[in-house]
Amino acid sequence: MMAIAVASPKDLAETCEIGEKKAMDIIEGAKLCADIGGFETGDSILERRKAVTKLTTGSKAFDELMGGGLESQSIVEFFGEFGSCKTQVCFQLAVNATLPEERGGLDSEVIMIDTENTFRPERIIQMSNYLGVDPEDTLRKIHVARAFNSQHQILLVDKAIELAQTKKIRLMIVDSLTSHFRAEYLGRGALAERQQVLNRHMHDLLNFATLNNAVIAVTNQVAAKPDAFFGDPTRPIGGHIVGHTATFRLYLRKGKAGKRIARLIDSPNLPEGEAVFSVTEDGIKD
Ligand code: GTP
Ligand code: MG
């Protein structure tokens, strides 16, 4: 009901193949039914924030940068060039989330939306073995879906909401958040529409985070070389939309001797800073 109440008449009309006037009537009706609420007092927000727990990255330095780990009820964006270990970090988070809370986990199952076909169970097994947890058991807790295009990716969030009704899901990964959008909405002319769809997708994710007290980890590739379509190469795609909706933004880059550096760019309550970590066969470490 809420989704309809906040939909634009044009989108609803297109999706349902009805006229715009009718769509407007339906939206008006949905507004009456949905509890649009609006304002929440500071103390009730504080109450909800008390449920926030933190997910370990596997590296002490990285956790410290994040104030003790990745916060639930938030979206964490990892952006960086190819090979900057965005996917490796996602694998590690997936394994860690299955750990009990005393070990920095979320004691939960995981949803992974894989847009680039890079999920590797073999890596999950290696990381599980290192942590001394049963690899088979860990793999059973990680629910992977390939997203074939951006529309499919968006629909998979609805599926995730369904799955979260029967299973405890406190980590959702979208790797990569932006690759389909980048491939499908080409050229400047498509930019506005892409940003609008991406914006809605981000809000769906944020909603999932709030409802399930979950961490949302998303990745975003930046091109090393100038890109004819998207201009400034050092800027992650999705620009302002992704940046403003993500609660924390982390820039990952390669360092010397196989090291990786995470830089916290944007956070509502933490100072900017950097952490050095490494990726080994056993996973993410200091
Ligand atoms: P794109 O998805 O292409 O943008 O890259 P990404 O940022 O997701 O990079 P990814 O996480 O795939 O990182 C690949 C890098 O991880 C490789 O260059 C390796 O350095 C490292 N890596 C992957 N598997 C292993 C492993 O088993 N052992 C070690 N030591 N390093 C690994
Ligand atoms: Mg990757």
Automatic annotation (TrEMBL):
<dbReference type="Pfam" id="PF08423">
    <property type="entry name" value="Rad51"/>
</dbReference>
<dbReference type="GO" id="GO:0140664">
    <property type="term" value="F:ATP-dependent DNA damage sensor activity"/>
</dbReference>
<keyword id="KW-0227">DNA damage</keyword>
<dbReference type="GO" id="GO:0006310">
    <property type="term" value="P:DNA recombination"/>
</dbReference>
<dbReference type="InterPro" id="IPR013632">
    <property type="entry name" value="Rad51_C"/>
</dbReference>
<dbReference type="InterPro" id="IPR016467">
    <property type="entry name" value="DNA_recomb/repair_RecA-like"/>
</dbReference>
<dbReference type="InterPro" id="IPR011938">
    <property type="entry name" value="DNA_recomb/repair_RadA"/>
</dbReference>
<feature type="domain" description="RecA family profile 2">
    <location>
        <begin position="227"/>
        <end position="286"/>
    </location>
</feature>
<dbReference type="GO" id="GO:0005524">
    <property type="term" value="F:ATP binding"/>
</dbReference>
<dbReference type="InterPro" id="IPR027417">
    <property type="entry name" value="P-loop_NTPase"/>
</dbReference>
<keyword id="KW-0547">Nucleotide-binding</keyword>
<feature type="domain" description="RecA family profile 1">
    <location>
        <begin position="51"/>
        <end position="222"/>
    </location>
</feature>
<comment type="function">
    <text>Involved in DNA repair and in homologous recombination. Binds and assemble on single-stranded DNA to form a nucleoprotein filament. Hydrolyzes ATP in a ssDNA-dependent manner and promotes DNA strand exchange between homologous DNA molecules.</text>
</comment>
<dbReference type="GO" id="GO:0006281">
    <property type="term" value="P:DNA repair"/>
</dbReference>
<keyword id="KW-0238">DNA-binding</keyword>
<keyword id="KW-0233">DNA recombination</keyword>
<protein>
    <recommendedName>
        <fullName>DNA repair and recombination protein RadA</fullName>
    </recommendedName>
</protein>
<dbReference type="InterPro" id="IPR020587">
    <property type="entry name" value="RecA_monomer-monomer_interface"/>
</dbReference>
<dbReference type="InterPro" id="IPR003593">
    <property type="entry name" value="AAA+_ATPase"/>
</dbReference>
<dbReference type="GO" id="GO:0003684">
    <property type="term" value="F:damaged DNA binding"/>
</dbReference>
<comment type="similarity">
    <text>Belongs to the eukaryotic RecA-like protein family.</text>
</comment>
<keyword id="KW-0067">ATP-binding</keyword>
<dbReference type="InterPro" id="IPR020588">
    <property type="entry name" value="RecA_ATP-bd"/>
</dbReference>
